[in-house]
Amino acid sequence: MAVTYNNLYLDIRQQLRKSGIDAATLEARELVCFGTGKSREELQRDGGLYASPELEARVRELVDRHLAGEPVAYLIGEWEFYGLPLDISRDVLIPRPDTEVLAEQAIGYVRGLGECRVLDLCAGSGCVGLAVASQAPQSRVVLGELSDGALKICRQNIRRNGLSGRVVPMQTDALEKPEKSLGDFQCIVSNPPYIPRADIDGLDTSVKDYEPHLALDGGDDGLDFYRTISEKWKSALNPGGRLYFEVGIGQADSVLRIMRAQGFGDIQVVKDHRDIPRVVFGTLCTEI
Known about the structure:
- With 288 residues, the chain is an alpha/beta fold.
- The chain has two domains: 3-68; 78-284, Rossmann fold (3-Layer(aba) Sandwich).
- Helices cover 39% and strands 22% of the residues.
- The strands form three sheets. It has a seven-stranded mixed β-sheet, sandwiched between helices.
- A hairpin with a 5-residue loop joins β10 (264-271) and β11 (277-284).
- α2 (24-36) packs across α4 and α6 (97-111) runs parallel beside α7.
- The relative contact order is 0.11.
- The model has no long low-confidence stretch (mean pLDDT 95).
């Protein structure tokens, strides 16, 4: 039986809700839009028209794949972060609302600096650094990332958001001391891998089977990157500059102690919208 675009959307939304998906409204809309080749505006405009059987079948196949564990962002190849449209592939983590807290905290600081250089270390899709650049027009941002596949996505997202003049991607290994040629920064922001290695196999299927383990594995206790970045990368941070980290559940106190031991002061912890400590940041003392 023929179905209208609107009824197809409503049917998919109900199916996702019955499967326990909290973001059923958003995900149903994105899957129907992608599967039918329509923008959000076109879907709303054409809601009363009938979808072809071929388009309906395509949408339902996408839904089946999603219910089997494949994230919507990988199915449609894009996602939104801090109001920015981003290309997404399985070479990068899917940007999450929790990480917008990290971006928001860094943006508030960088806006007050005027002209400055910012490093987004372990950049992934570049979401945090691009959000900073979009909201702090006087900043110049480097997206530091080790993975070739992720760097490709960074380049695409820089172009997609019209930030080629102020954002550059650069291959960097966060676990190695930075090259002097990289220069100095007034702010370093990082959402590094922080899942304890033994915990990865117990993660949700949508994460452990689809998202890149390189971007998840934080070592035996999940803190390897916090230790190394705090120790080795402070040489790339101007005295008086700030280092911002996203942290996993239960890690804030440990990261605070790591940063304090490396000469960071005025360390603060910021909670996310679920009241979970999510961001730890501190200022590099003038004497290192």
